[in-house]
Amino acid sequence: MELFIDTAEIDEIKSLNITGLIDGVTTNPSLIAKSGRNIIETIEEICNEVSGPVSAEVTATDFETMIKEGRKLSAIAQNVAIKVPLTFDGLRACKVFSEDGIMVNVTLCFNSAQAILAAKAGASFISPFIGRLDDIGSDGINLISEITEIYDIHGFETKVLAASIRSVQDIIDSAKFGADVATIPPKFLKAMYNHPLTDKGLADFLADWKKTGQSIL
Ligand code: G3P
Fold first, then answer.
1. Which ranges in 50-179 belong to alpha helices (H)?
2. Within a domain: residue 217?
3. What residues make up the domain containing 22?
4. Structural contact between residues 165 and 131, judged by C-beta atoms closer than 8 angstroms
5. 54 assigned to some structural domain
6. Is residue 21 part of a domain?
7. What is the DSSP string of 95-128?
8. Tens digit of pLDDT for each residue in 20-79?
9. Using a 6 Å cutoff on CB, does residue 28 contact ligand 1?
């Protein structure tokens, strides 16, 4: 399973990228706005830091302008994945970009019918929003399961990118049900490795080791 970091904050990305565990980055207009920085400069910096796919989202809603914006974003670096919304115009733009060999992440996916269209449009990634479905009492993980099942049956190559993650359990469940990628807020990487029994066990090991008076070096 690939792990992407869901943020536009370059310092956060750098601090986690030193682990070697980051396979890509996703941004969206809200994350760019939160960073307070220029989108072009930000995406360029992120692409220089992370070699994997970096999602940069168009902000137009009409096909023609999506194409113009997407081509400008794609020109920033070879690892830019253009993000388009799951709308009629977004699907049209996805088809054009995918036929040009450009990575596309189709975002704001909330049911399997949408995911089928995104795969048919040649999307590199589909982003089902788990948390926002759970927020309204739907079952986000069930959507992951349904999409992966449909994609497997029909041999769609689009990668399922679990997004809108609200907990470590969402990450585990996304992995269990076959998501290819999970894009996680930076705080969840620490939450994934941090466990009190690990900390206690390590402290006990080191306390016992200290009694030996030995040193490995
Ligand atoms: O990548 C999509 C993600 O940023 C949306 O998350 O928490 O705003 O639903 P959220």
1. 63-74, 88-99, 112-120, 130-135, 140-154, 168-176
2. no
3. 2-212
4. yes
5. yes
6. yes
7. HHHHHTT--EEEEEE-SHHHHHHHHHTT-SEEEE
8. 999 999 999 999 999 999 999 999 999 999 999 999 999 999 999 999 999 999 999 999
9. yes
Arithmetic mean of pLDDT, 75-84: 98
Taking the CA of residue 166 as reference, the ligand 1 atom at the shortest distance is 7
- 175 CA from centroid of ligand 1 (Å): 18
Quote the ligand 1 centre to 129 CA distance (angstroms): 7
On whether residue 26 sits in a domain, the answer given is yes
CA-nearest residue, atom 9 of ligand 1: 164
Total domains present in the chain: 1
Q: Which of 54, 129, 135 to mutate to test the pocket of ligand 1 (most atoms within 8 A of CB)?
A: 129
**pLDDT 10s digits, 114-139:** 999 999 999 999 999 999 999 999 99
Q: Is the CB of 55 under 6 A from ligand 1?
A: no
**pLDDT (average), residues 80-84:** 98
- Would you name the residues annotated as active-site residues? 83
We report the CATH number of the domain holding residue 171 as: 3.20.20.70
